[in-house]
Every structure is written in structure tokens, then in C-alpha cells.
Amino acid sequence: MSITIRLDTEDNVVTATRTLESGTVVEEIETRGIIPRNHKLASRDIAAGEAIRKYAQVIGYASEDIAAGTHLHTHNVEFRNVDADYDFATDLRHVTPVAEGARDSFMGFRRESGRVGTRNYIGILTSVNCSATAARMIASAFGPEEMANYPNVDGVVAFVHGTGCGMAGSGEGFEALQRVMWGYARNPNHGGVLMVGLGCEMNQIDWLLEAYGLKQGPLFKTMNIQDSMGLARTVEAGIAMVREMLPEVNKARREPCPASELMVALQCGGSDALSGVTANPALGHACDLLVAQGGTGVLAETPEIYGAEHLLTRRAVDEATGKRLVGLIDWWRDYTDRNRGSMDNNPSPGNKKGGLTTILEKSLGAASKGGTSPLTGVYRYAEPVTARGFTFMDSPGYDPASVTGQIASGCNLVTFTTGRGSAFGSKPSPCIKIATNTEMYERLVTDMDINAGAMLTEGQSLEEKGREIYRMLLDVASGAKSKSEAQGLGDYEFVPWQIGATM
């Protein structure tokens, strides 16, 4: 493995693959001081104010004169807001569909709606935080001994959150929460749903049912604490309702389903400077393979594509789709301004320790999770994704909130790249974690499913690693447990994005 990585001939930086001592020769220049692993060094002299380039794109500006061989990071690189010139539909690389007879399949749960689940849970949804304890008590009543009688049911899970009252009865925040509840209620990984409220909350269950045309039945029930005459009776009644559902939900059987029925969340967290070199582009290749099968990838985390959105607009199928993405970026710039923040609030301290200097650098790597296929749709947070192919959903960069939106949008699988390590997991859609570097993979092997660091340490190609990820998508979709799933993660990672004011 080379001691440095150069991503493009136009770049004026290279990335160290191991810690380099002062005086190490790199591209015929000597390092000036120690260069930490995964961090950048100047490959030529860079004048104060000059653009720093990586991926052949601007990632920041020199805050002082920087001599060749010098460590580049937050101490000598400054962030500036980006004013991009947007092109639309100018870089369309059309996907050649796999022939119908040669398409891949997985063993999934086909629902009456026609959609396909990769898991078979009973979900207990809460309309307001006031019913959170009731929901948890109901779910906790179903232990391993009882669930052993229902081998085709993956579990009973409570999805609780911290809002639902003290919020406006209309507007972005209210609508986003209702989309999340509705999206989880109809996610194909749920075989049954019980929705529990208090009764007087702003986020009324009846309003949700009316707005989205949800109808109660044997596998979809609602209740509230005030009508049930208190907490204890609500819990008792809720347990009885779930017990009525269990035999019916257990009747579901896996059957061969086309890979086109997979909708995969493309997520990253705890990134490092190798994320955009190994795991993210490898996941992007897996996404391209899935798109060729007729499946769908859903990229999110809008603040973490900032500075790279111009690359995505070029891939938009038309100008209208590209402009919807630009509109999201404009909203986020206004949002951070109103809250006296900065789009460069991200990267986090861990990201910076891993070699990421600005949000622009992070975004360029993060966007590569979407592969190279056309951008077919852009959606609001938790809005149902209806387009096939590579799509985008608006969300914060905060992983639990982002994944919650992606699952609500219809994702039945989650992929998660990380360079620093992560304890994230999700339900009802299982999470596959992909390590960007071999050192972290070996240290956290009980948490990581795939080592994309092997692209550097073992010479695996982008295509090989992308196909490995794609094959795991099919395996996990068919019932194989990811490592986060096997450890029981996902009960506490349901975090709807709270957009509006709390009153």
C-alpha cells in the first residue's frame, strides 16, 4: 500500500495512509513535521487565499502561505460558503437494466399492498411522548419465551419519541412527524401496527388516519390512554391487542422476490478521510448494481452534501428534479443563518481527528454513496419515495433522525459507512455497517459487517467491494442478521426530526 493517496492530478494535496515522520519523501518533496494517518499534506506550495483542491474540487482555502510537505488541516485551511454554478442533466450515465430473466432475487415478505418486507415486526407507534412509557411497557411484555411460539415474527418494538405536543398544529414540524408515523405504519417490514396516544395531544391520531386514509383492522389498531381510563388499563389492553395480532403476523412466509423490491438507505456516520476513498464509493457501486436490477437507493443528510450538490444536479434526470435539490440546499443555508449556525458545523471532532477538515471535503466523499446513476427523485423528509433508481431525501446530518426519515420513506434496508466506528442500528429495517479502514474494522470487528479498507490493504477493487456489499444486501434482506441487528440495536434509534418551535 502506498504511503499516500492522490485522488486527482488537479489536487494540490495528498492523503497519508499512515502516520508520516518529518522528512518523509512524498512525490519528491519532504514532509515538514509529522503528518497524522489519513490527514492531508500540501503536494506543492500554496499561497494564502488559494483554493485547496481534493477530488478535483475545492474543499477550502489556505488561511496562510503553506509550503509543500506541510500538514493541512483546520489550523491553516478556512471554510467559505460556496456559490456553485448549477448544471442540470448534463452528466447522465444511463443504467443498462439487467435482463428480466437474469435478475437477482431475495427471500422477502410480500404484503397485501404489493410491497415487500425484509423483516416481519409488530410496531407500537406513539403519537406523543406522553404515551411512550405505555408503548415500552406493552413491548416489554413480549419476551423470548412467548415469542418462541411465533418464529416468523422478528419482534415487538416500541417506537417512542420526544414530541407530539407543544407544537404547532400545522407547518413543517407537524407535517414531518405525521409523515414519519404514517411511513412507519405502512413500512413493509411491519406485519402489524398498534398506535398509542394520550388523547389531548396536538398530534391527533384521528387526524393522521383521516389525512392518510389509514383504516383500522386486525393488523392495524389504535388506542389512547385517556379513553382507556389510564396507563395500567392501556397497557393491559395494548398487550391483548398485540396477542391477537401475533398468530396472524406469524402466518407470513418468506418467498422469492425480485431485487427491484429493495429500497436501501445510504447513510454514513463517524466518517474519516478514507470514507470518500473506500467505503462510500464502494457503496455507490453497490447502489448502481441495485439500480440496474430496478431497485432504489435513498441518499439523505442534506447538510452533508453541501458543496457537492452541483455534482448531483448534473445527474438529475431533468431540471425540475435538480432544482428541487438546490431548493433544499437554499432552505438549509437559511435555516443555519436563522439559528446563527454554520454549514461548516459539520464535520464533528471525530471527523476532524480522522482527517476531514471542512464540510466541503466531507460532502464530496459522502455524495459518492450514490454511485453514478441518474438522480431520479428528490423528496422531503419522510416523504414516500416513489421513483425507482437513485433518489435523495431531505434530512439533517444527525444519523438517527436521518435514518428515521429514510425508513419512513419506505426503506427496507439500511447501509451505514463509518471510519471512526459506530454503535448505530435500526428497526424495523436492519442496518449493515461498512468500515472505511482496516485498522478500525479489526478493532471493532464485532460491530462491522464489511471491511472496505481492504481496498487499500489487500488491493481489492472498487467493483469487487461494491459487489460484496450488494451480495450482503440480498443476504440480509433474506433474513441473515447484520451485526448491529444480532446485538439488538434499533430500539432507541427512532428519532423523528424536530423542525419547528416547541411552545
Distance between the termini: 56 Å
**Helicity level:** 25-40%
Beta content? 15-25%
Global geometry = globular
**Average residue-wise pLDDT:** 95
Using only CA atoms, what is the Rg? 24 Å
Count the DSSP helices: 15
**Poorly predicted residue ranges:** none
* Biggest sheet architecture: 7 strands, parallel
Protein topology:
Elements lengths: L3 E2 L7 E4 L8 E2 L2 E2 L9 E3 L8 E4 L2 E6 L8 E2 L4 E2 L26 E6 L5 E2 L3 E6 L5 H9 L3 H4 L7 E5 L12 H15 L3 E8 L7 H8 L7 E5 L6 H19 L5 E4 L4 E6 L10 H14 L3 E4 L9 H5 L5 H20 L10 H5 L5 H8 L8 E5 L9 E5 L5 H10 L4 E6 L12 E5 L2 H6 L6 E2 L2 H4 L4 H16 L5 H4 L17
Parallel strand pairs: 12-13, 12-14, 14-15, 17-18, 17-21, 18-20, 19-20, 21-22, 22-23
Antiparallel strand pairs: 1-2, 2-5, 3-4, 5-8, 6-7, 7-9, 10-11, 10-16
Helix pairs in contact: 1-5, 3-11, 6-14
Task: List its traits.
503 residues, alpha/beta, Archaeosine Trna-guanine Transglycosylase, Chain: A, domain 4, Ribose 5-phosphate Isomerase B, Chain: A, seven-stranded parallel beta sheet, four-stranded antiparallel beta sheet, 19% strand
Describe it.
The chain is α/β, with parallel strands linked by helices and 503 residues long. The chain has 3 domains: 4-78, Archaeosine Trna-guanine Transglycosylase, Chain: A, domain 4; 121-249, Ribose 5-phosphate Isomerase B, Chain: A, CATH 3.40.1400; 266-486. It is built from 15 helices and 23 strands.
